[in-house]
Specification:
Mean pLDDT: 83
Bound molecules: uridine-5'-diphosphate, magnesium ion
Number of helices: 11
Number of domains: 2
Order of helices and strands: EHEHEHEHEHEHHEHHHEH
Oligomer: single chain
Shape: elongated
Strand order of the largest sheet: 7-5-6-4-1-2-3-8
Number of strands: 8
CATH topology of the largest domain: Spore Coat Polysaccharide Biosynthesis Protein SpsA, Chain A
CATH superfamily of the largest domain: Spore Coat Polysaccharide Biosynthesis Protein SpsA, Chain A
Structural class: alpha/beta
Largest sheet: 8 strands, mixed
Radius of gyration: 25 Å
Amino acid sequence: MLLSVITPAYNEQESIRKLHQRLTSILSRDSFETGYEYELVFVNDGSRDRTLEEIKQVAASDPRVRYISFSRNFGKEAAMLAGLSFCSGDFGIIMDSDLQHPPEMIPAMMDQGRAGFDQVIAKRTRSGDKKGRTFLSKLYYRLVNHLIDVKLEDGVGDFRLLSRKAIDALVSMREYTRFSKGLFAWIGFRSTVIEYENVQREAGETKWSLKALLRYAADGIMSFNDKPLRVSFYIGAITMFLGLLYILYSLVRVLVVGIEEPGYFTMISAILIMGGVQLVSVGVLGEYIGKIYYEVKGRPHFLVQESNIPDLTERSEANHKGNNAP
Ligand code: UDP
Ligand code: MG
């Protein structure tokens, strides 16, 4: 039995060595005691600091370290996909490389994996997070769960163990705008949750600007359903209905009372409302068309600059063929 630990890294030069040490001290004991092999898959997501050099150094000293280095920054979603595509484990664990996901959880996760679960989700508490962020994400999850077709849970991130079945399922989904939280929920399989205490980042700083978070939030809503399209349809329909009622009412008034002062206010508000509805609808359409544009191009999710995984090119070609199959 082989466990692959997959860690995407973007500008994490201070953490790589520490992460490798923590992982090794836990994994060497647990794998020996409970009988499995492990590999560590570092995915360098086009870092601009010394992350790749650090990874190569640990790889030189530890034959269990595999690395994949991208030609530029493709984002965490792409990095996770690369790790999942090229890991060879019967189980895979995805974890951040900034030590916010405690490696100490791995033995417990492996226990659940061996017990037959396909997804073992490590859920964090939100203690120590910025108040504003916590509030915003709580709000987001409440909103999003009303909107989309799969159920998302607050505090549940990418830190999880996946069985080979789950890994293959995730890799088989080739959509360009990937929203892993949704994908994880979408594939289903037997899942279980274990909790851990929230940890603050040890070194460096978060790679998520508010702008990136907002984009992520929008992707989440939009990549998992077509309800926004329907919402604009409903708004349009309701406005049209109200407009019709108003016209009828005015007509009756004209017939009964006769023509009064023509309402500048009514006219301008009608124009504004209609204009607004149209703009909203066009915007929603545009968002979806934008997504289609990216899907249709069928570009690879990432490009590999270098790696120490021997059959990487063959496998990535096989992956790409899989993509074109009907
Ligand atoms: N990451 C990545 N590519 C990116 C941004 C982030 O591979 O473009 C990695 C990063 O190195 C870290 C993980 O994704 O291992 C989570 O990022 P971060 O800690 O910045 O997010 P947060 O923990 O604040 O949600
Ligand atoms: Mg982090």
